[in-house]
């Protein structure tokens, strides 16, 4: 297994700092893509019920024969399954598709504030956690007010908030609110779906280190303590994205990449996505 650094979550369990994301990989291609990732050394896989490819992830896991305790598998409850009973049922369906008997991390995919169900959904995740069917529970696309509302329930604090973060959208207020509560930030679309890789500031830093632009952007994330889950279906890129733990950006280089911020959201806005 590749020597991937881990972060310790607020319940004491560890999570690899890099994982492999499978959004937009068709179900028919998912097993092969995940197999490439596992062969490259990834042990953390990020999927979601709505991606429609949990069964492909499960097939690759079964074929790989890697001991279950070396894997870290995340999936997410979709918006239409929010609510206490609905989320419990959605969890069972995801586990069945994955062919697993427990998950490492289960996330509420979006707060969908209009429906006002995310607190009930959170209580369902707490039940699953208490039953030891999932090793950690968290949220995704939560703004500070959603995080605080969950924390104010007085039960389990989310271990992770998976949000869109990349050089063009840094979400510092959301990250700070999470840090205050002990919530690790996991960056989705960490490469801005490749939209920041040809910026001259990134390519110049990459040339200095004899690395690719993607490696520089992923390194910018991990040096700031975030988990990253880049997606690629290209085996050489899958390997390249994992090879980011043997070089270091200087504080000036980090600051230069910080300068790419431009409110460059690529996905839906959490306040309006239901
Ligand atoms: N919680 C949420 O709401 C969301 C979660 N996610 C999660 O985050 C993961 C990653 O996000 P995603 O939107 O896929 O975007 P990424 O930022 O990971 O970018 C993926 C794109 O970058 C390309 N790419 C990957 N590596 C390289 C490289 N080394 N050099 C050049 N291009 C590269 C890929 O191309 P190619 O595949 O052709 O190689 C693909 O087009 C998802 O798969 C999913 O797991 C994503 C969106 C929302
Ligand atoms: O990829 C995800 O995890 C998402 O939630 C979104 O990208 C979402 O599915 C979407 O694309 C809605 O248009």
TrEMBL record:
**Annotated binding of substrate, by residue:** 109
GO MF annotation terms: oxidoreductase activity, acting on the CH-OH group of donors, NAD or NADP as acceptor
Q: Site described as Lowers pKa of active site Tyr, positions?
A: 76
Q: Where is the active site?
A: 51
Q: Where is the NADP-dependent oxidoreductase domain?
A: 24-260
Going by the UniProt record, its keywords in alphabetical order are: NADP, Oxidoreductase
PROSITE patterns in alphabetical order: ALDOKETO_REDUCTASE_1, ALDOKETO_REDUCTASE_2, ALDOKETO_REDUCTASE_3
| Entries under SUPFAM superfamilies matching the protein | NAD(P)-linked oxidoreductase
Give the coiled coil ranges. Answer: none
Supply the Pfam families for this chain: Aldo_ket_red (PF00248)
* PANTHER family, A to Z: 2,5-DIKETO-D-GLUCONIC ACID REDUCTASE, NADP-DEPENDENT OXIDOREDUCTASE DOMAIN-CONTAINING PROTEIN
Indicate the family of this protein: Belongs to the aldo/keto reductase family.
UniProt protein name:
2,5-diketo-D-gluconate reductase A
State the organism named in the record: Actinoplanes lutulentus
Organism taxonomic ancestry: Bacteria, Bacillati, Actinomycetota, Actinomycetes, Micromonosporales
């Amino acid at each position: 297994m590749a020597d991937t650094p881990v972060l310790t979550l607020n319940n004491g369990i560890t999570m690899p700092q890099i994982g492999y994301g499978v959004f937009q990989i068709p179900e028919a291609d998912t097993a092969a893509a995940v197999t490439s990732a596992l062969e490259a050394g990834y042990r953390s896989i990020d999927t979601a019920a709505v991606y429609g490819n949990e069964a492909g992830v499960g097939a690759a896991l079964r074929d790989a024969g890697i001991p279950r305790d070396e894997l870290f598998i995340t999936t997410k409850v979709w918006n239409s399954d929010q609510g206490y009973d609905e989320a419990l049922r959605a969890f069972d369906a995801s586990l069945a598709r994955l062919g697993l008997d427990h998950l490492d991390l289960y996330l509420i995919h979006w707060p969908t504030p209009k429906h006002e169900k995310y607190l009930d959904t959170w209580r369902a995740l707490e039940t699953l956690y208490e039953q030891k069917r999932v090793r950690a529970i968290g949220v995704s696309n939560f703004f500070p007010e959603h995080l605080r509302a969950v924390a104010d329930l007085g039960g389990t604090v989310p271990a992770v908030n998976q949000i869109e973060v990349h050089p063009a959208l840094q979400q510092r207020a959301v990250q700070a609110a999470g840090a205050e509560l002990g919530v690790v930030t996991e960056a989705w679309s960490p490469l801005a779906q490749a939209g920041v890789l040809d910026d001259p500031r990134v390519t110049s830093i990459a040339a200095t280190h004899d690395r690719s632009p993607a490696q520089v952007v992923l390194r910018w994330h991990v040096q700031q303590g975030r988990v990253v889950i880049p997606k690629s279906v290209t085996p050489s890129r899958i390997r390249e994205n994992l090879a980011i733990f043997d070089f270091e950006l200087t504080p000036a280089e980090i600051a230069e990449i910080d300068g790419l911020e431009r409110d460059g959201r690529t996905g839906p806005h959490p306040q309006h996505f239901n």
